Fold:
Amino acid sequence: MSDGVLPRILVVDDDPNAVADFIDMLGDSADCAGVYSSDEALAAVNSTSFDLVLLDYHLGDGVSGEGILKYMREREIATPVIMISKNADFRTVRKAWHGGADDFLGKTPTRSELRDAVERCLDRALVLRANEALRRDVVNLLGATESWLLSGTSGAIQHVNREIVAIAPTESRVLITGETGTGKERVARALHELSNRKAGPYVAVNCGAISPARAESELFGHVAGAFTGATHHRRGRFEEAQGGTLFLDEVGEMSLDLQVMLLRVLEEREFRRMGGNSTIKSDVRLVCATNAELDAKLRAGLFRNDLLQRIRVETIHVPPLRERREDISVLALEFLTALRKSHLKKGLGIADAALRALLDYAWPGNIRELQNSLERAARSCQNEQIDVHDLPARMIVDPRTMSYTEARDRLLERFHHEYWPSMWKICNGNKTEMQRISGITRQAIDKILKKYGIDPGESGTGD
Structure:
């Protein structure tokens, strides 16, 4: 725990010797309390705030460990729980997982195994508490009835959430970058809902789906007679978004002619309907998004530099799912919760093998692909358990069939994803020390910190 405060851990087991062994293995790294019955355990979790509970799955009296876990989760007692059982078979582990356990250990773990499991759960709980605190801040400071922040516990997605909270109350134009399916529109909607314009309209336009022939009318509207077939006046998207937020998705697909029109509106803060003579004052906050590299389009003469500078006052980059793999299980659980309601499968869960397949997959389609894959799997699964064979065939990869290059790339990505956040923590945020240990340049370290969402402002010296 931070600031030298030891984590408070409750050990629950009907064997006093087992309780003593666990407390001894944790040593002076934790402030431990031990209880030996279900009644004592229920009283303890109701009366005392613990950072973690080590819970015997098979208590010999009253309520079982499984029952205590259910009791805690039904009452929204969010304390992390590590289940302990001598029967570490697949069925028992799966029941503990779906019951809300955070980890599972055999009855006689080594000191190293126990401490590693405890550290993992405590670290994850810290991130979740920070995420929840951030959401509460949004509600309290901005008056939002819903946080709208992105789901996940990774450093990368928490960095995005902090940017949303900081930028939303301003009137600055924002450019959101990221691959297709990463949740750019969710960011745009969050910027609106957490802004001073939240009572106004939110209007989204996919620039890539507008034909050049009707692009001007789509954005700025037209008057009757402006072109063949224009029999009546029509409001454009700028007019519909007055007093609110206009979100232009795939802004890099705009034609150069339309870019000139948009630039004029941003400079003069007014526009005319197509074929009209009167001007209309523009009162919108513009948020744009692109899955393309606009600087490359700029060099190719396909995007105007003056327009880019005006829409890129603030930039938010949404990382791809493969760069924040720890969020896959969080998102999967979120989607499964929604699917339980929509598919009337109240006990819908996912087998360990299927979850491992999700964690190992590269997700070129990002969050959208994850959601669609789970929806299809929920429809096709024969019972209330999504198994690996219910997933799309492309996600079921036999390592023996991988090429050397593919296997190497997967291994390296997983290594880097775990190595650098750990390095940052070990070095207390000191980049000079990271450079000395890793042997790479300071510039390379800066790029790595950005890629993995490690914010130099969070902790450490950054020196």
